[in-house]
Amino acid sequence: QVQLVESGGGLVQPGGSLRLSCAASASISGRVDMAWYRQAPGNQRELVAAFTSGGGASYSDSARDRFTISRDNAKNTLYLQMTSLKSDDTAVYYCHYHMRALNPKYDRDYWGKGTLVIVSS
Fold first, then answer.
1. Region label for 97, one of left (φ > 0), alpha (ψ between -120 and 50) or beta (otherwise)
2. Nearest of 95, 98, 105, 104 to residue 70 by alpha carbon
3. Are 81 and 36 in contact (CB under 8 A)?
4. pLDDT by residue for the chain (121 residues), tens digit each?
5. How many other C-beta atoms can be found within 10 angstroms of the C-beta atom of residue 42?
6. 100 phi/psi in degrees, rounded to 5
7. Which one, of 24, 31, 17, lies nearest residue 83 by Cα?
8. Residue 7 CB neighbour total at 10 angstroms
9. Is 13 strand, coil or helix?
């Protein structure tokens, strides 16, 4: 079982910035894919940013050019730097950990409990 603890959420004004962190209880390198998702009230959970299997980063259209995903493998921590925040960014942000087993049927997925981001004046 992998524990994920998100932090860094809060209330921020439009145009402001926040940095979210996700501390994992296990290694986030190797056969592990890490991503940030968010869920706004009344909406489905959606992918915000992720590290691809090749090590690069991918972003949703809404996050591209404003958000940056990064990682510190030594600290087993994933980050999401968010800038130019808008009211539409208000959501609970979740960290996702996908462990790729040698046999895909043994792949595992873990989620944190989320951190709330409210963008409002």
1. beta
2. 95
3. no
4. 999 999 999 999 999 999 999 999 999 988 899 999 999 999 999 999 999 777 789 999 999 999 999 999 999 999 999 999 999 999 999 999 999 999 999 999 999 999 999 999 9
5. 5
6. -90, 110
7. 17
8. 14
9. coil
